[in-house]
Amino acid sequence: MAIIPGLLLQLGLCWKTISAGQSSPTDASGDLNYELPTSNYETQDNITSEPTDILFQMVRLFLKVVQPHAFPEDVFREIIQKKFEPTVDYEKVAYYEMGILICVLLGLLFIILMPVVGCFFFICRCSNKCGGEMHQRQKKNGLFLRKYFAISLLAICLIISFGIFYSVVANSHARNRVRKTRKLANSNFKDLRTLLNEPTEQIKYILAQYDTTKDKAFSDLNNINLLLGDKISEHLKPKVIPVLDEIKAMVTVITMTKEALENMNSSLNALSDGNVQLNRSLDNVKYNLQRSLSDPECSTYPVNETCSTIGMSLSQLGINADFSQLPFVDTELANVKNILRTNLDDLVQEGYKSFNEIPESIGSQTVDIVADVKMTLNTIGSDINNITQHIPIQNMLPTFTGYINNTESYVHYYLPRLEEYDSYWWLGCLIICFVGSLIVVFYYLGLLCGVYGYNRHATPTTRGCISNTGGIFLMVGVGLSFLFCWILMTIVVLTFFIGANVEKLICEPYANRRLFQVLDTPHLLNEDWKYYLSGMILNKSDIKLTFEQVYSDCKRDRSLYSAFQLENLFNISEHLSIKERAGSIGNEFENLNIKLNIVLMDAAGRKALQDFAECGIDKIDYNAYLAQSSKYPTKVNLLSFANDLEAKANQTNQGTLAQSLKRNAQDIKMIHEQQVVPMIESQNTLNQSVKTLQHINDGLMEKVTKILHSLDSVQNFITNTSSVIDEEIKRYGRTIARYYEQYMYWVEYSITEEMAACKPVATALDSAVDVFLCGYVISPLNLFWFGLGKATVFLLPALIFAVKLAKYYRRMDSEDMYDDVETIPMKNMENGNNGYHKEHLYGIHNPVMTSQLYH
């Protein structure tokens, strides 16, 4: 028992600092993502569940009932500190082992008493005592007792069969698992060698990622004109572009004003000429109509009424609008044309161009600073390479490799012996299970022959051969039980004591990590060291480095650096100096002075805008133009007048009068088409131009003033943008430095959390203790003694019921029909002391009556 904790401690120390390279991805902020290459390990982290696990759990529940005490940490510490000296307080050990010791004592009592009882039983039977006499006393409840004994024996045999089955399952499970030990060991050693080879490759990968980081930083430095220039442009754009857009829109308005003024002059000119010509044409039509109305036919009834109506409507043939009072806008047009001599559109484009050239200006002013930063980044790359070469992990690898080689040689040397011993164990357990099975088979055969061969009409002395054979089988089973059950119980006691203690003192405390807490007791393993691991690995025993913490960290797949607190040997954070180095990169941009030369609009452009606001379109009488342009050219619609005239001509006698009226109607239509319609189009053009100018004039002075004010404000803002530029330069410098910071934080995280992750160490320890020792050896061993012990214990009631039941199956030498005749001594009657033969006394001479009474 004392060797097992020492073995566990040795396992923990042999693999205490071996690490694994299985990593998890790290997503850094920004555009750069780093991820250490992952490794695939063969060894499973957990044991695969099987249907037989419920049997092992049943045994553990039984052990909790037998041994309910908690793990004796104080006793364990005392034993280790005193190195198993006789001065250890073994009363505490006995108290903890009370349940197991009671079971062992009961087993020893069973082992001692069963051979003694069996010896006396056989002697007694040979003396025709203890049921050895082949005579059966008949009882009134004999039928019930026979069935009761048979059913009880059958139930007990089933329980014994289950126990033997548990032992067979445990034996098979142990054999199958031990065969997998070699594969499990090879898998663990392969994983350990894999993780030993990984740190070097991971460091190479980490160093290679600096080239990626540097390339990204160099790319940003090469594009500083775009990255920094665009940022500065983004600050200026909300103020500069709207002003330029407003000026550009105002240039469009000036052009529209010129076009509207030109349209007004041309429309007024066309309307004035058209008005004179239209008035002349209408006078001619009126004259011709008056001549037509002087026709004699107009004096006759009813034509005279039509002629009278026509004559009265001639006053409607006249012009309605007078355009001669509307002045031309030559002065305003001349002012606008004079403004347009200054090419405002080109000036606006120059402003856009000046703004868009900000990146080029910044690129030309930052050539020197870019070269200095590139040199700094190259220097940092060399420093990182030097730092990674001093990480303690690499210095420990040769020692770890030696541990692995020695351990592997040791395992492969003893593994064939283990397999050989397992074969002996398997064969021995098979023989033991066969012995138990042989006993219960005789009981089953006895029950089968007894039940099958039993004849209810036969008397005890006339029972059949099959029934008698069943009774003999039962007695053979009884004899084998006495012969072997104490041997079986001896095996049960030995395996129970070993298996139960290992389960309670190693497997269970290892699973709940109480065993680690004992080993982590200060000054336990070495009186001079407070914490054994820290004294052994870090040479600083005051640092709290415990077995439990190392195992837990490795179980969570943390790196060797964090699990073993190697920062106490080599502080990677201090050597990387992330803040200091990043600050040196940012300081390169501190003294950078960038000047922007942006001119949005020169003095000529500003004067042109001011002149446009004072060009005179605000003095035009727009209402007068709109009033005349909205009038119809004539007093009456000439087309309607002509149609009405034709209708009235049709009311006459279709003579010369009608023809003259129709000819005049056609003339009126021609006047409408050739003169009135063009005038209407000119009026519409005039009306639209006037409305356009009116809209342009609405708040023109305020708009121009606002544009000029905004222009001055933006120009002043551009002149005083040093704070904005400085802020963007600092932000850009922090961006370049952040690439380095991002990489360095990833380097620190990878080394402290990911590189050489030690999960395979925890897996190897679990494989040695939890899987091999507890899962492959102790769990089957416990199930074996549990099943065999149950079968052996129930052999005791089985042999009792078998002895009782055999009387009902075996052929007797004599029989009687009384229940309990205490007043008639059998021996006296047999000896003939009373002068009567027993057959006459019991009425056996009458077979019919005897059979009836028996049944």
Low-confidence stretches: 1-30, 818-855
Quaternary state of the chains: single chain
Shape: elongated
- By secondary-structure content and strand pairing, the structural class works out as mainly alpha
Q: Please, how many helices?
A: 31
What is the radius of gyration?
A: 60 Å
Taking strands numbered 1, 2, ... along the chain, how are they ordered across the largest sheet? 1-2
> Could you tell me the strand content as a percent range?
under 5%
Q: Mean pLDDT, as a whole number? A: 77
Helical fraction:
over 70%
Report how far the terminal alpha carbons are from each other.
Answer: 62 Å
Biggest pleated sheet: 2 strands, parallel
Care to count the β-strands?
2
Family: Belongs to the prominin family.
Subcellular location: Cell projection, Microvillus membrane
Keywords: Glycoprotein, Membrane, Signal, Transmembrane, Transmembrane helix
Protein name: Prominin-1 isoform X1
Annotation keywords:
disordered C terminus, mainly alpha, two-stranded parallel sheet, single chain
Can you describe what's shown?
This is Prominin-1 isoform X1. Keywords: Glycoprotein, Membrane, Signal, Transmembrane, Transmembrane helix. InterPro entries: Prominin. It comes from Galeopterus variegatus. It is a multi-pass membrane protein. With 855 residues, the protein is mostly helical. The chain has a domain at 236-283 and 315-358 and 598-725. The protein is 73% helix and 0% strand. The protein contains 31 helices and two strands. The protein has helices at residues 3-14, 53-66, 73-81, 90-96, 98-126, 142-179, 181-222, 224-293, 303-313, 330-340, 344-356, 358-365, 367-388, 392-453, 465-511, 514-519, 532-538, 547-555, 560-563, 572-576, 578-587, 603-613, 622-629, 638-649, 656-697, 700-719, 722-754, 759-806, 826-830, 838-842, 847-854, and strands at residues 135-136, 814-815. The protein has a two-stranded parallel ribbon with strand order 1-2. α7 (181-222) packs antiparallel against α13 and α8 (224-293) runs antiparallel to α12. The longest helix is centred in the first third of the chain and has 70 residues, at 224-293. Mean pLDDT is 77; it is low at 1-30 and 818-855.
